[in-house]
UniProtKB/TrEMBL annotation:
Protein name: M48 family metallopeptidase
Family: Belongs to the peptidase M48 family.
Peptidase M48 domain span: 77-243
Cofactor(s) needed for function: Zn(2+)
Signal sequence annotation: 1-20
A Pfam family reported for this protein in Swiss-Prot or TrEMBL: Peptidase_M48
Cofactor note (record): Binds 1 zinc ion per subunit.
Keywords annotated in UniProt: Hydrolase, Metal-binding, Metalloprotease, Protease, Signal, Zinc
Keyword match Phosphoprotein: no
Length: 267
């Protein structure tokens, strides 16, 4: 049992020394090298481009215009990343962000994002994931959770069938009490970062609400309960955006007065 206590202390020490702070001021656990994750993101992005058909040039220019306007208002350090965005021919509405600044959107999403401002809400959200190092945090949380459960599993195996039942309950608790809520927290944080970012770039932040209304209408029913989902519910998402809208509108007016008025033509 002594080695179990030592391992637990080691895990705690590692956790305390691997803390970072997100752009919203939230404490994070980051155990993985950003350089390593960025390289993996680059490799995954290349694979996406090899396996998925790309949309036409007009769609690529449109997405690059919106992304470029958002990247230009990032702090200098973040602007230096190799930001890239591609539009893929895919009927399903989807968007993703990979470590290192590699992003993708589908033509199905362009159908739902009806204006440049709505597309900016999507791309700003994806940039938010990258800025907040959510990929690193998710991997780190998974690693820490699995290590903690392995320690508990060793203890439970010494306690007979009752201990195994306890481990089954702990496994479910980790999934629905730690990992999934963490993903919902990431989504809400990316919403907040993206809202500020689109406003700073001169895109109308009110269109983020219209976008999520469109997304909700397109998704229909059949979604899992919010406590089993990796995303906030539609109502939670809209409420979060509305709570920050006054601040975002003030930033938007300042951006427009400063001459930041994007003009990205939808194909």
């Amino acid at each position: 049992m002594r080695w179990i206590r030592c391992l637990a202390v080691g895990v705690l020490t590692l956790t305390l020394t691997a803390c970072a702070t997100s752009p919203t001021g939230r404490q994070q656990l980051t155990l993985v090298s950003d350089a390593q994750l960025n390289q993996m993101g680059q490799q995954a992005f290349k694979q996406y481009q090899q396996e998925l058909p790309s949309a036409g040039d007009a769609s690529q220019r449109y997405a690059q215009c919106v992304a470029g306007a958002l990247v230009r208002v990032l702090p200098e350090r973040e602007r230096q990343q190799d930001w890239q965005i591609r539009v893929f021919e895919e009927e399903r509405a989807n968007a993703f962000a990979l470590p290192g600044g590699y992003m993708g959107v589908t033509t199905g999403l362009l159908e739902i994002a009806e204006t440049q401002d709505q597309l900016a809400a999507v791309v700003g959200h994806e940039i938010g994931h990258v800025l907040a190092r959510h990929a690193n945090e998710r991997v780190s949380t998974q690693m820490a959770t699995e290590l903690g459960l392995s320690v508990l599993s060793t203890t439970a195996s010494m306690q007979g069938p009752g201990g195994q039942q306890l481990m089954g309950a702990l496994g479910l608790g980790a999934q629905f009490g730690i990992l999934l809520p963490f993903s919902r927290r990431h989504e809400s944080e990316a919403d907040a970062i993206g809202l500020r970012l689109m406003a700073d770039a001169g895109f109308d932040p009110r269109q983020s609400l219209a976008l999520w209304d469109n997304m909700s209408a397109a998704s229909g029913d059949g979604r899992p309960p919010v406590w089993m989902s990796t995303h906030p519910s539609h109502g939670q998402r809209v409420a979060g955006l509305q709570a920050q809208m006054d601040s975002a509108m003030a930033r938007y007016e300042q951006a427009r007065q400063a001459g930041r008025q994007p003009d990205c033509r939808r194909p």
